[in-house]
Amino acid sequence: MLPPTPRDESSIVHPIRTALVILVSGVALYLLSRYRYLLFHSLAEIFSITIAAGVFVVAWNTRRYNAESSLFYIGAGYLCVAFLDVMHTISYAGMGVFPDDRFYANQIWIVSRATEALTLLVFLGIVRRRSRTTDRIVALTLPLVAAAAVFTIFVVPVFPACF
User: Fold this and answer.
1) pTM of the model
2) What is the mean pLDDT of residues 146-151?
3) pLDDT the model gives residue 125
4) What is the CA radius of gyration of the chain?
5) Distance separating alpha carbons of residues 116 and 79, to the nearest angstrom
6) Residue 102 has what DSSP assignment?
7) Is residue 119 a contact partner of residue 73, using CB atoms and an 8 Å limit?
8) What distance in Å separates the CA atoms of residue 18 and residue 71, rounded to the nearest whole number?
9) In 3D, which of 22, 40, 44, 21 has the Cα closest to residue 32?
10) Maximum C-alpha span of the chain
11) How far apart are CA 31 and CA 12, in angstroms?
């Protein structure tokens, strides 16, 4: 039987340090949300925008390595979601970009979540029937649907009010 090997000190410190950073960040974000909610909301949205844009970047940069990958659909959809989340962030009440008398932020948030759901449904629905034609259709349809929804919010205000 081999003698027990001494544990490397870094193998113990690293998880503790990570947990401490997460705990301190969580407490700081909570306190920030109590003090300046608009700043907290903007930081949370920037985080989600970064994740959505990162999904697109990974999908875009891996498409040449695996031409049969359906990751392209998720990347194209999440690029639209990232754009809609930016629109949601700047239209939030108090940001001063759009008038506060309309519910733009809520409406755009609904459109963003619907686009995300549509993206995942498209991914699940045509994962086995991928071709260059469906790639182009998806790459054009998802942004057009998102743009049409934004059009019904800002230009022709027929999108239902969301509270």
Assistant:
1) 0.82
2) 92
3) 74
4) 21
5) 10
6) S
7) yes
8) 30
9) 40
10) 77
11) 29
